[in-house]
Design brief:
Elements (H helix, E strand, L loop, with lengths): L4 E9 L3 H16 L6 E5 L13 E2 L2 H6 L12 E2 L2 E7 L4 E3 L15 E2 L2 H14 L3 E4 L3 E6 L5 E6 L2 E3 L5 E6 L3 E9 L6 H9 L11 E10 L9 E7 L8 E7 L4 E9 L9 H8 L3 H7 L3 E11 L10 E2 L2 E3 L15 H20 L8 H9 L1 H7 L4 H25 L40 H6 L13 E3 L4 H10 L3 H4 L5 E5 L5 E5 L9 H5 L5 E3 L14
Helix pairs in contact: 1-3, 1-7, 7-8
């Protein structure tokens, strides 16, 4: 069956804050000039927001620019930060760091605690009202090129392919979505962005990409314990001083609390389980008392870009550009990226609009990359560019102390005159299992802490069972033959959804089992597998988690 083709001026892959902001800005510019531009946004989740997971405390700087009247339009930024706390945890104690010691950039007053999924749902409504076509449930599976090697769009994945790779009675071919410019806003470690970065060598002049994994739960707590606008960040326990990461707890409206834990994926102990670190963190006395008597509503996990300024790849390729977390605009010390993602989408839209006005198509949007360097995105990331490398190289205490000093100096326009590198990619940082100490995690109590499968259940994750496994092994023998003896197959632990298991097969042999239906699309396996043997690809459209308001 031939694939249907649809033509647009601009195609945007991913209905996150970057993609939707780009679509809105394009339509705003066209409307102001009384011109018509066709804009299409595709989203692999079953609905806009279904795959969006973030803390989140949002800096409103970008939405102020995109919609100065966002309050009148009903944007779901309902809870301004009222109390900003930073705690350093020991196993039983908590030391509160005075706010006056924190670099100004880390001050959260003036920001809003939000569900980023709900913000994206609202942005999608604004986009559609302006005439943007938003198609949810369609995963961008293939980049389309012309005979000159320029990107001319993407094709969505075929539907109705069985587990055996054969067409079923429900088969429908994917659709070719062709455009003069294609913006890739898939989020962290997007499958198309990964292909484009490799094909066009976009990372040739940048440092290694760096990542963390963020695991989040949404709770409804006792109203007597609820403090709308309270922001609490922690470092320290349960992680050791050589393992980067920390936690967040944000009190939203309606007695809801977003609580989460981040582990930097350059950790070295193959026995570490980010999921289980999160579960035992919740038992700390400074945290547990908020959750007691409450109930867990939702669960999810997502990789986070952490490389900062030095890891941002070249942003453009013939026919399009990378925007948002696909490019890596997260400010790690601030634990924020949505403002930079939105601004990057807006800047890309302005470059596309100018190019279309000059009757250009499918060339490089060099103006976009130049605009980013002149924008407050660059300033935001410049102030923190040495924090992550210092932490990684020198550990929690000395690394963060020097990182804090560097942030203060850069805030005062006297920063250190160099940019530190990251050293190694995250997959190359694991010690051998024989050199590492196993970690004995406590069993979950079912009240404060939980197991992986019950957690995946409340993420509303669903994949059509009779479809090809979307987690591809380059060599199926590597998990047992290489990863198991060398690193005790860490996929069993770094995956926060129980996708990967080593099970006993017939004859006493070990077998690597992939429970692809559990996948919450966090992309950690694609990043952390020490043999780089796992390739995360999109499942059939609409599959994955269905987050209600994460």
């Amino acid at each position: 069956m031939d694939r249907e083709a649809m033509e647009f001026d601009v195609l945007i892959v991913g209905a996150g804050p970057a993609g939707l902001s780009a679509a809105i800005r394009l339509k705003q510019l066209a409307a102001a000039a009384d011109k018509e531009i066709t804009v299409c946004v595709i989203e692999k989740g079953s609905e806009v927001g279904a795959h969006i997971l973030s803390g989140a405390v949002m800096d409103p700087i970008a939405i102020n620019e995109l919609f100065p009247d966002w309050k009148d339009k009903g944007a779901p930024l309902n809870t301004p930060v009222s109390d900003d706390q930073f705690l350093f945890l020991s196993e039983t104690g908590a030391l509160k760091i005075p706010n006056i010691l924190m670099p100004p950039l880390l001050n959260n007053h003036g920001n809003y605690i939000v569900s980023l999924g709900n913000v994206c749902r609202w942005l999608a409504q604004q986009a559609e009202a302006l005439g943007v076509e938003v198609f949810a449930g369609f995963a961008g599976a293939e980049v389309l090129y012309d005979d000159q090697g320029r990107v001319v769009g993407v094709a969505t994945g075929d539907m109705g392919i069985g587990r055996d790779g054969e067409k079923t009675d429900a088969f429908e071919p994917g659709i070719e979505l062709r455009a003069k410019y294609t913006l890739i806003g898939e989020g962290v470690r997007g499958s198309l962005a990964k292909q484009l970065i490799a094909k066009f060598k976009l990372d040739a002049d940048s440092d290694f990409a760096k990542f963390g994994i963020g695991i989040k739960e949404l709770w409804e707590i006792d109203p007597a314990k609820h403090k709308p606008g309270l922001v609490v960040h922690t470092m320290g326990w349960p992680l050791d001083s050589s393992t980067g990461g920390g936690s967040f707890m944000y009190h939203l409206e309606n007695n809801q609390v977003a609580i989460g834990f981040v582990v930097h994926l350059n950790y070295s102990n193959p026995y570490l389980s980010p999921f289980d670190e999160f579960q035992r963190y919740k038992h700390h006395p400074a945290i547990k008392h908020y959750l007691e008597g409450g109930r867990r509503i939702s669960y999810g996990a997502r990789a986070i870009t952490e490389g900062g300024l030095q890891s941002i790849p070249k942003l453009t390729f013939p026919g399009g550009a990378l925007i948002g977390c696909a490019a890596g605009f997260v400010n790690v010390p601030r634990i924020k990226g949505s403002h930079n993602a939105m601004k990057s989408g807006m800047l890309a839209a302005e470059a596309v609009y100018a190019a279309l006005g000059a009757n250009r198509a499918n060339d490089e949007l060099v103006e976009y990359a130049a605009a980013v360097k002149k924008s407050w995105i660059y300033d935001d990331l410049s102030k923190v560019k040495n924090v992550k490398p210092l932490w990684s190289k020198l550990g929690l205490y000395l690394g963060l102390a020097l990182g804090g000093i560097d942030m203060w100096m850069r805030s005062l326009k006297i920063g250190l005159p160099f940019t530190l590198g990251h050293g190694k990619p995250d997959f190359a940082t694991l010690k051998r299992a024989s050199e590492a100490t196993p970690i004995a995690y406590p069993k979950p109590d079912g009240k404060i802490s939980f197991d992986k499968l019950s957690s995946v259940f409340i993420s509303n994750t669903n994949h059509e069972e009779n479809q090809p496994i979307h987690l591809k092994l380059a060599d199926p023998t590597i998990p047992i033959a290489v990863n198991l003896p060398n690193w005790d197959e860490p996929a069993q632990r770094y995956c926060p959804a129980g996708v990967y298991e080593v099970v006993d097969a017939d004859g006493g042999e070990k077998r690597f089992q992939i429970n692809a239906q559990n996948c919450v699309h966090c992309k950690t396996c694609d990043i952390k597998d020490p043999s780089q043997n796992i390739n995360w690809t999109v499942p059939q459209g609409g599959g994955g988690p269905n987050y209600p308001n994460m």
